[in-house]
Amino acid sequence: MLKIAIKDLRLFISDRRALLMTFFMPIALISIFAMAFGGEHERNSRPVPLLVADLDKSTSTKDLITQLDSLKSLEVTVMPLDSAERLVKTGEQSAVLVFHKGFKDSMDAGGNIPIELEFDQSKAAEIGILQQALMSNLMRMIGSKMIMKKQMEKVDKQFGAVDPSILKNIHDEIEKSFAENGAQGGGNDNGVAMKLSPLIEEKQGNPGLIQAVAGTAVMMLLFGLVAMGAGMLEEKENGTLKKLLYAPINPSHILFGKMIASILVALLQLTVLFVYASFMFKLDLMLNLPALIVMMLTTSYACAGFGMFLASVAKSRQQVQMLSSLIVLTMSAIGGSMIPTFIMPEFMQKISMISINYWSIQGFYDIYWRSLPFTDPAFLMRPLVLVIIGTVMMSISLVFFRKNVLKLA
Amino acid sequence: MDMITVKDLKKSYDAQVALNGISFSIKEGEFYGLLGPNGAGKTTTISIISTIVEADEGTVTINGMDLNKNKIECKKIIGVVPQEIALYDKLSAYDNLLFWGSLYNVEKKLLAQRIEDTLHLLGLHDRRNDIIKTYSGGMKRRINIASALLHTPKILFMDEPTVGIDPQSRHLIFEVIEKLHKQGMTIVYTTHYMEEAERFCDRIGIIDKGEIISQGTLSELRDFSKMKESIVIRFAELNAEAEEKLKQNIVGEFTISDSSLVYYSGDIKSDLPKLIIKCGELGFVPTQIEIQKVNLETIFLKLTGKQLRD
User: DSSP character for A122?
Assistant: First the structure.
């Protein structure tokens, strides 16, 4: 019994794939997930980026923007409203704070303050932190200013007959007192409300659905197409690849033929998954059909290129299996298939851009969440990058195909 | 007219010399056997002529075309039956043949007709729609051959096409080979079975250590080897010391293997008594003495010093 156990352990130790899957892969995934979710803590400790559009351009708004900018928790960028809205719509920024025209007048009059936070609902975590920061700072600042104004008005009414220089002194004292209270974090928002407006309409339920469909589809596509690519190595092992080389065809056509088959299978797989999501979860396939087709095509192309790449680089099917488990799972973890990228810390969001998953999922987000039109450059960027990835992978595959797979003699 | 001409072909893999300047030519319609022990250079030679490996030096001409300059054209008139069964297990025999035939751009209707004919010829027509996975080894070999014939090549390379098959399949394959030969197809055949080479080959090239050591018809090879008959003397046991003793005391051409001494004789009447007396003098008692006519096996053994299956 002990001998069998020892033998099995020796076999296990000599199996590099088993070792990789048992130790390295879980450690890698734990690290990625920990960094992604650990981002919550990190996010709280680093400034949250906030776009500000000042349509009022008054002394009050300028003063408030300066005060906001001085806060450690915020990183303020002032820009025109349309540019800011575009950045939010394309997913590059989470929210824009808009000081509407008449802000100062309303504040002076003590009426409803025209201030609005336009945001991307898919970035719920970031918006939550932003709201918290704005409520505890901005609204307190506005509230304090309004109370100060009211108090000054009261003083003016009560002591209208007093010497103007004394009245000015009283005003200065009130202002000084509010400024000190404000700096110490005192005061409250005094019922001042900020309008919250999701900038992207909620047409398709929730981003979770798109995340689930696109994220899972891309990950499974990668696994499937790597297996298809590995078929090339199977052909090498059983002799059919050699027999193909006897035929009057260009050897590179073998690779291209396999690539076409992979793309067609990928397209079919994506179609089935999206149609399923349409029936089961009411995902509207017609929302932006041209964009959806382009995303499916380019995702299939990039994934097929990746499958070919892996099969060409590897020297055996076992090696493909080992590499695919390692690379596909890692790419899916960092690229947003397992965890949405928007809940990851910024550095991980940047890293995620090296994965096929990221560009594909973001493209589907553009269609279903951000509602970007087909011609929008921000959307077109996603399929373009996927085409580049696919082409680069395919070119490398061709080189390795000649070097590794064709070495038959 | 020469269908294949090979001149000074050289090929090395790293420091290992696989072919050391071999030359030979094969006439149109000729059945040429390429024989040699394992690692002699047969596969490399066939791989170069069938275009999948490039030679370091030398030239190959196929049907008057320079192979290096007309690869695709040469491939069109070549059919290869590889040693391994190179078929798609999950496809039916018919679909396999349809695929392999389509690679040679055979017109669809003509291809379908040829598939039907070939399946009939190989006795597998009734199983044409079964997937290859369900076939026996011999049946797979037959389909393996069929897949190389659909474009009616002028030259057919057959690399040990009868390895590990049942008698029925072997018989059917032999019939097909003979039929193809009669039709005028040029066939290059490698085998480990001497009886196959003797039965089919018009000429035989014996290759060893990357060189053609002899080639010609069976009769020419016999003359070349200067052998008429061989005397096979078997002993109960021959250890290394005994083998050495025999080697030092027996005069003439002979080999010793598997406790047997094979003596290549030019004059059996004179050589046989001398050998028996010498063995007695040395203290070896033969368990069996056999006189063999010179066949390809003995010629091969004499020329290469190895059994064909070595």
Answer: G
On chain B, the residues whose CB falls within 8 A of the CB of A240 are 86-88
In sequence order, what DSSP letters do the residues of A231-281 get, joined into one string? HHHHHHHHTHHHHHHHSSS-HHHHHHHHHHHHHHHHHHHHHHHHHHHHHHH
A246 interfacial to chain B (CB closer than 8 Å): yes
Q: A263 is written with which tokens?
A: 């793309």
Low-confidence stretches of chain A (pLDDT beneath 50): 183-187, 204, 409
Beta-carbon separation of B103 and A247 below 8 A: yes
Output the average pLDDT for chain B. 88
Selecting from B53, B88, B105 the residue whose C-beta is nearest the C-beta of A240 gives B88
pLDDT of residue A408: 55
Nearest CB among A239, A248, A409 relative to B86 is that of A239
Inter-chain touch B53–A408, beta carbons under 8 Å: yes
Q: Do A242 and B86 touch (CB under 8 A)?
A: yes
Window from B121-125, B226-230, B287-291 with minimum mean pLDDT = B226-230
pLDDT in tens, B112-133: 999 999 999 888 999 999 999 9
Instruction: Verify whether the Cβ–Cβ distance B103 to A239 is below 8 Å.
Output: no
CB pairs A-B closer than 8 Å: 52
- Whole-angstrom distance, CA of residue A174 vs CA of residue A180: 10
What is the total residue count of chain A?
409
Stretch B173-178: mean pLDDT:
90
What are the φ and ψ backbone dihedral angles of B60, each rounded to 5 degrees?
A: -130, 130
**Are the Cβ atoms of B75 and A246 closer than 8 angstroms?**
yes
| pLDDT grade for B243, boundaries at 50, 70 and 90 | confident
Please indicate if any CB of chain B lies within 8 Å of the CB of A407: no
b/e map A295-310, b = 16+ CB within 10 Å: bbbbbbbbbbbbbbbb
Confidence of residue B255 (pLDDT cuts 50, 70, 90): confident
Confidence at residue A186, expressed as pLDDT on a 0 to 100 scale: 43
Rounded to 5°, the CA angle B206-B210-B213 comes to: 35
CB atoms within 10 A of CB A180: 10
pLDDT at res. A248: 93
Instruction: Tell me which residue of B300, B194, B176, B216 sits closest to B30, measured CA to CA.
Output: B216
CA–CA min distance A231, chain B (Å): 11
Contact B178, B195 (CB under 8 A): no
Contact B78 A244 (CB under 8 A): no
Domains of chain A: residue spans and CATH: 40-198 (3.40.1710), 207-408 (no CATH)
Beta strands in chain B, from DSSP E residues, in sequence order? 2-13, 16-27, 31-35, 57-62, 65-66, 78-81, 155-159, 186-190, 203-208, 211-216, 229-235, 253-257, 260-265, 286-293
Q: Sorting pLDDT into bands at 50, 70 and 90, what band is B278? A: confident
- The pLDDT confidence band at residue B96, using thresholds 50, 70 and 90, is very high
pLDDT of residue B22: 92
CA B245 to chain centre: 35
> Chain A: nearest CA to B132, how far in angstroms?
13
Query: Is residue B148 scored above 60 in pLDDT?
Result: yes
Residue A242 at interface with chain B, using a CB cutoff of 8 Å: yes
The CA-based dihedral angle spanning residues B54, B55, B56, B62, taken in that order and rounded to the nearest 10 degrees = -120
Report whether B172 contacts B79 (CB < 8 A): no
Q: Pick the residue with more confidence: A146 or B44?
A: B44
Distance, in Å, from the CA atom of B104 to the CA atom of B266, rounded to the nearest integer, reads 52
Determine the residue among B10, B77, B84 to mutate to test chain A binding: the one whose Cβ has the most chain A Cβ atoms within 10 Å: B84
Q: Yes or no: say if A72 and A47 are a contact pair by the CB < 8 Å rule.
A: yes
